Amino acid sequence: MTRIIKTRDAPNLYKIGVRAGLLGNAFGIGLLISFSNTTWTHFGWYLTALSFFHWSEYYTTSVTNSRSLTLESYLLDHSREYKIAAVASWTEFTLEWLVFPGLKQFKWLSILGLILVIGGEVLRKTSMITARSNFNHYVQHIKQHDHQLVTHGVYQYFRHPSYVGWFYWSIGTQIILCNPICLVGYTIVSWRFFRQRIHEEEISLLNFFGEHYVDYQKETGTGLPFIKGYIGRY
Ligand SMILES: C[S@@+](CC[C@H](N)C(=O)[O-])C[C@H]1O[C@@H](n2cnc3c(N)ncnc32)[C@H](O)[C@@H]1O
User: Fold this and answer.
1) Which three-class secondary structure state does DSSP give residue 1?
2) What is the pLDDT of residues 125-135, one digit of tens each?
3) pTM, entire model
4) 160 touches ligand 1 (CB under 6 Å)
5) Which domains does the chain have, with CATH numbers?
6) Is residue 133 lining ligand 1, measured as CB closer than 6 Å?
7) Are the CB atoms for 126 and 162 separated by under 8 Å?
8) Alpha helices (H) along 177-232
9) Which residues cross the membrane (predicted)?
10) Distance, CA 139 to ligand 1 centroid (Å)?
């Protein structure tokens, strides 16, 4: 079915195109650096992974839940803190590369980070594909008529598989870069973020699905270390 593009969509289409172009360029530059013989190889891995993550958030949403697709689906405009965290990691990498260049050349450590990033990415996108239209980048507080509780696939192992994937993905990016300060910072900040987010999300899920969600909570853990979720009355 052909979708008629209305004139008012044009500025958005332009912004979507700009973001796709920027991410495509970053991905290409990341690959070039990755395969170049320089001391920035691991930064190339990171740049490739980062641009792929944001592009694939948009693309996966467009396939699995096009109803919720917006410019924000790239997760580039998400939060100020996220941007600050990104700039902090680039700054740490550059400063340490200048002062302690040897610190950036632990290939085995960067490979470990890459494994975490790839595993986290696969888990996150598998969760989006499994939950389909029930997955939304924004926590829903009003139940859509067709919102169903998902407990199959990766959701039978973790209650919050996409957050598990994103959590290990973000830690993995700092291990790739061999950034000790940001590794500690990212671990603490993302853990606190997901603890708060899961608390808020589970209050709504208990309101939406009642006893079914309580049973799900009893059978399945959140998947994130030391995060129990919202265990309370609904
Ligand atoms: C960004 S998605 C994250 C989903 C889930 N927390 C995860 O990590 O895979 C947030 C939306 O998913 C919905 N959601 C979370 N768990 C769900 C489940 N098991 N079944 C259906 N919808 C769910 C919430 O209502 C919320 O609007």
Assistant:
1) coil
2) 999 999 999 99
3) 0.94
4) yes
5) 7-219 (1.20.120.1630)
6) no
7) no
8) 180-219
9) 20-37
10) 7
